Amino acid sequence: MRVFGFIIKGISVLLYWISCVSVACIVCITVFDVIMRRAGRPVDFAVEIVILLAGIVIACAFPATSLAKDHVIMEFIVEKLSGKRLTALNTLTRLIGIALFFTIGLSAFKLGNGLRNAGQCSPILLIPEFPLPYTLGVACFVECLVLLYMLLENVTKREEQV
To answer: For the chain, which terminal residue's Cβ has fewer other Cβ atoms within 10 angstroms, N or C?
Structure first.
């Protein structure tokens, strides 16, 4: 369990830093575009790159956000539950999350394969678009592992308390 947690946390941190670098690139490109617009020479591809990077930011932030427990929680429901019911609710939500993110990951890979087979590229820079759905798919599968780790951690804690 410890090794599994270490690996999952390491992958999540890596994806988190990819997300951070993408945000920094979005800021730099946007600032550069604004400066160049004032000079009368806008950057034609700025919007295209920002959109692609935004997809990376969103996808790569999933696992680290879940591990940090920075996601939205219905506190008004959770705070009224007892130990066993809270454990059951956590288990149920983690299982639903695993199923949901697994389905999204598979769909993202199918979309990536379709874009790759079609040769879909961005309109200005002609950057192939298939890596973005693949990135989302990988992030979703890592999220499944994060949720599995959290589920196992929750069950292990419950067994230690008994």
So the answer is: C
